[in-house]
Design goal:
It is globular and about 55 Å long. 47% of the residues lie in helices and 20% in strands. The N and C termini lie far apart (120 Å). A hairpin with a 4-residue loop joins strand 4 and strand 5. The strands form 5 sheets. The protein has a 6-stranded mixed beta sheet, with helices on both faces. The protein has a two-stranded antiparallel ribbon with strand order 1-2. Strands 6-7 form a two-stranded antiparallel ribbon. The chain has 10 helices and 14 strands. By secondary structure, it is α+β, with helices and mostly antiparallel strands. Helix 2 packs parallel to helix 7, helix 2 packs antiparallel against helix 8 and helix 5 runs antiparallel to helix 6.
Length: 361
């Protein structure tokens, strides 16, 4: 006796086919997730988020007075050329004037996903352009905001600033919390305890630090200005690393909401989006940091830092190297090269001293 064959209705067969197609798509997407993760993220961003983000970034767009609007990057032969940006970390608390606690001259090379950060300690003694006086470089922000700071930094480094970005650390505290915390290399408890300072303790060796802890890490000031500047670099790097690890495109609009008035820049919103996609599609960013050291001195009872001339000269050379689109990646001057130059100079001096001693004997 033959078994009767059960026929599947066209309607059911169509439903099964759809289910199989969906399953197939999921399998392919899953298998290719690693390889195509970045392009898919960019596609998703374009489809669902770019309009939202651009609208939110308009709240932060703040061009400097008397300066013409310019495109974010010069594009030649479909390649983005290097550009510079002045990063200002502003510490503004309730009922207090804003202060630029962090001042970093950045050179961005989009094609290679490389960023050079040159930190200028806030107590650096220099001419304040537009004020006709010499003072701490961070006072330029109190005197004339982003414009005077930009002019002063350009004069100090002898290099143009294409764009600025001012970030209020209070706003970044919210961003850190939204990211679920950030990793910080704290191996020993940090205690702010001096009489006239805000009191806090940051415990060591935690896997993640929440917003207030991260903000305290940035504000800690009981060691040296040099170390504080390095902490600011570490803090900014930690936020970038956390964002890359989370890789959650859907969080971008809410993060933009938090930045709001806490973030200002003269870079066009549309250009920021295009640059972000360029970075997302490229290799993970490589960040090189260098701090212009100084020697402390007092003038009329006020503490200042006199910039080390060799550090300043080397910073200028590095900026020129990174800003030149014709510089090959392997030819870029790096912060480590300063140490090599110093070691070589020390060796040469020792050799010269030895030769002099031999001659005199």
């Amino acid at each position: 006796m033959k078994e009767s064959k059960k026929r599947t209705s066209p309607k059911k067969r169509s439903g099964m086919q759809k289910a199989l197609i969906v399953l197939l798509v999921l399998v392919i997407a899953g298998a290719g997730a690693f390889v195509f993760r970045k392009p898919l993220a960019v596609m998703a961003f374009d489809l669902f988020l770019s309009g939202q983000v651009e609208k939110k970034l308009e709240q932060s767009y703040s061009p400097l007075e008397e300066e013409q609007q310019q495109p974010v990057i010069v594009v030649k032969e479909e390649k983005m050329e290097p550009f510079s940006m002045l990063l200002l970390g502003v510490d503004q608390r309730a009922n207090e004037p804003a202060r630029s606690d962090t001042m970093i001259y950045a050179v961005v090379r989009p094609e290679e996903s490389k960023v050079l950060l040159v930190s200028i300690p806030r107590d650096t003694y220099t001419e304040i352009i537009g004020k006709d006086k010499e003072d701490k470089i961070n006072h330029a922000y109190a005197f004339g905001g982003e414009k005077m700071t930009k002019d002063t930094v350009e004069n100090f480094l002898g290099s143009p600033v294409d764009y600025y970005a001012a970030i209020n650390f209070e706003g970044l505290k919210q961003v850190v919390d939204a990211l679920g915390g950030i990793e910080l290399p704290i191996t020993k408890d940090i205690v702010n305890k001096q009489k006239d300072h805000e009191k806090f303790t940051i415990k060591a060796n935690k896997p993640l630090y929440e917003g207030q802890e991260a903000l305290n890490y940035v504000r800690y000031r009981e060691d040296s200005d040099f170390n504080r500047t390095k902490r600011h670099q570490i803090f900014l790097n930690a936020i970038v690393d956390r964002m890359l690890k989370l890789d959650q495109v859907s969080k971008i609009p809410s993060l933009m909401d938090m930045m709001g008035e806490n973030f200002k820049t003269d870079m066009l919103p549309s250009d920021i989006i295009e640059l972000s996609k360029k970075v997302l599609l490229g290799p993970s960013p490589t960040i090189e940091g260098f701090t212009i050291m100084g020697e402390g001195f007092r003038k009329n009872g006020i503490y200042y830092d006199a910039a080390d001339e060799e550090d300043l000269e080397f910073a200028k050379q590095m900026i020129a190297s990174w800003s030149n689109p014709d510089t090959e990646p392997q030819e870029l001057l790096l912060p480590a090269d300063a140490e090599k130059d110093a070691a070589s100079s020390s060796t040469n001096n020792a050799s010269n001293t030895s030769a002099t001693d031999t001659t005199s004997q």
